[in-house]
Structure formats: structure tokens, C-alpha cells
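W.,

You were right to be curious about this one. When I first looked at the sequence I had no strong expectations either way, so I just let the prediction run and decided to look at it fresh. Below is the sequence, 314 residues in total, followed by the output.
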Amino acid sequence: MKTLPSIALGTWSWGAGMAGGDQVFGNHTDSGSLKTVFDAAYDAGLTMWDTATVYGMGASEDILGGFIKDYPRDKFIISTKFTPQIAPETENPVMTMAEESCKRLHTDYIDIYWIHNPADVEKWTPGLIALLKSGIVKRVGVSNHNLAQIKRADEILRGAGFRVSAVQNHFSLLYRSSEKAGILDYCKDNNIDFFSYMTLEQGALTGKYGTANPMPEGSQRAMTYNPILPKLDALIAGMKKIGEAHDASVSQIAIAYAINKGTYPIIGVTKPGHVEEAAAAAKIKLTLEEISTLESLADATGVDTKGSWENPMV
């Protein structure tokens, strides 16, 4: 099993189309603008990439695959997802979508393959077994599942001699439901890697946006976060203060927090500078007092950033 870097790089905002970067983030990215990002990540030793078929309906995988094919495959850890809502009507839709992802990613195997959401744990989890047996997939995980669903998926896989080896849920300073539900502790106790997505809350926890500088209108994230930005002022100020003690930015403190909580944050990158910031954040060690301060400030915001696609964890 490959050793995981402290940080995974996310491609949710790569490419256009349904659930792609243009709709969700208001970005306009393509392979031409992203090649320097990929190269910067490779040079920094950040070679774990997370994508999904549904991100731009294949556009994200296409772009990532176009870059990967020019390098030795064993240099990368590639993570992608099966989304039940777009499952084809085949004998094993999970297998079908994995094979299609492999084609777009120019690879004959996937390091971590996820059931993207718990639409039906009993129906979709067994589809992973054939992938593991065939070697097309090396490890499997579940995303956006609550604790009971994680345990049930693991039980199904154990019946075939496998197990859930990773969980990927929304986790940030502003959204710690997986911790409150006992999922982080369960993962730690059962040697399951926990991947945290939306660690930066789509930019709201970067210090770039605020009351005086809202996100540009015209994207889903602007509609979601602009109304709550005024409530984050004290938290951002606290993150800046702690950042000064570590010669770090607000973004880096948000990333370091997720790492210090024992998770692997998935950081969306669309510019080389994002990669450089993420790489440096992995080296930051926060004190227990700093973590407590950050969590108190986050709790005081009173905001709930649960995504519309997410089910409650608690």
C-alpha cells in the first residue's frame, strides 16, 4: 500500500459542465490553464489527486488523466468516485463507471475508489467487491456516509474478505459533524483514513473574502457563502493572529487544523500558488491551545455549512 502524503489535491473545480468548476465555483479552467498547477504539485511531492466522474461529468477526470499519462503511473495516488445518481443500467454499474473512469484517467487501476454518497448502502456497496477482486481498484472508501452507514458498508465488505479503508466527509473548522458523530474516533480506532473535503469552505476560510470583499456573484458558492461572511470576521481575525505566530496565511491555518485533527485534507487547486500554500501548511504544528481557540471562535459564528447534498451526521 502506498504511503499517503499529508494532503490530497482536489479537482472539483476543474473543467466545466454539470457540478463542474464553472457552476459551483465560478471558475473557468481547462487543461491549458491547469498544467502549471499539476507540474507545481509534482515538483512539491504532492501526488495524491482526488476527482469524481460527476465533476463536470467526466471533464475533471479527462483533464487529470491527460496530465497523468505523461508520467510513471506509480508516482501517483489517484482517487475517484462512483455517484449512484448517475449510475448506468448495467449488470454492475459500479464496475462500469470505474472502467470508464480508468479510460478518462489513462490508467488501468484506481488507488482509492469511493461510493460518493449513501443513496442505498445495501445496493451499491457490494458492487465494490468485484473491483477489489479484479485489482482494478486497490482500496475502497465511502463518502458522505454517517457512522451507521460506514459500519454497514464495512460489514458488507468484510463478508467478502475486504473492508472500508477510507472515509471522505465534509470537515472544516466550520463543520465538525463527523467529529461530533464519533466518525473521526471510529476511523482512528479501526485504521481507516479520514479524508476531509471543503476544509477551506470553498474559499470562505482563506481570508481572501469577507464583508468588504464578497465572492464574485454568479456561482453556487457565492450564493451559499456571501450571506454568512459577516459572521466569520472574528474567526478570520483569530486565524490571522495564529497564522502570524507560524508565519502562515489564513488558508494554511485552516489546512493545518484539519491535518492536526488527524485527517487528510483535500485542497482544491487551480493556481500554482495554491499548491505552494498547501505544501507549506503540511509542516505547521498547532498547539492544543491554538486548536481550542480556533474551535471556540468557529462555534461562536453560529453558522452551518452543511451542503445541500449532505445528510446530517448527528
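Here's what jumped out at me. The first helix runs from residue 21 to 24. And, maybe more interesting for your project: Residues 15 and 59 are 5 Å apart (CA to CA).

Coffee later to discuss?

I.
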